[in-house]
Amino acid sequence: MNVWQRIRRGSPVTVGLIIINVLVFLWMLFEFGIQGISLASPFSVQSLDQSGALSGTAVQAGEWWRLITPMFIHVTFEHIALNMITLYFLGRYVEMTFGHWRTLVIYLVSGFTGNVWSMFFHPAGLSAGASTAIFGLFGAFIALDVIEQNNPAIHAIARQFSILLVVNLVFDIFAVGIDIWGHIGGLIGGIAVAFLLSVPKRYNNPAVSRWLRVVGLIGVVVANFGLIRLF
Questions:
Q1: Residues involved in catalysis
Q2: Angle made by CA atoms 106, 219, 165, in degrees to the nearest 5
Q3: What is the pTM assigned to this prediction?
């Protein structure tokens, strides 16, 4: 079995998202060069803005695509390295359980929701990074623990992820330059869309799933209500 066959059978969505993020980062290095304050922080504010980082002012001016592009843009080498390592290990768990297309939808909707929350609470700020979508993947696996209530393996992993989430959110409170509202929005979006999409039948409890789909739909709408408020 060659490498491509292994990827296709394993986690092609996760690998594909990592490739896209890395290619965007390399394109920014090629396009803008080292314009930031140091080699470790290569991009200036102007470069990030031109690349499509989240700007509430720009979104309100009609640049709606900035609610999507930020989840593929990173500020520093450390930023993209930490996010891609997390995405690799977490994404494989989510993709093996939820399936390929569900994982992609969770990633995109979580990232979008996190950006809506970020824009709502910090409309004048500029932010970027895959962490809004990554927090959504964490949320999706925690939702899975509710969907599949009698699986001790899933419960054990979800508990570990919950601990990591709490640690990260506490760190966000005290760290400088971290978009905590984007992370919270992504987390809520991931939980809601996971309920809405549910999981393949081999993991699913039909009696629970029916009601959780309704909860998920309401959750996705409510989680993005801030977008309506902004306009």
A1: 131, 183
A2: 60
A3: 0.83
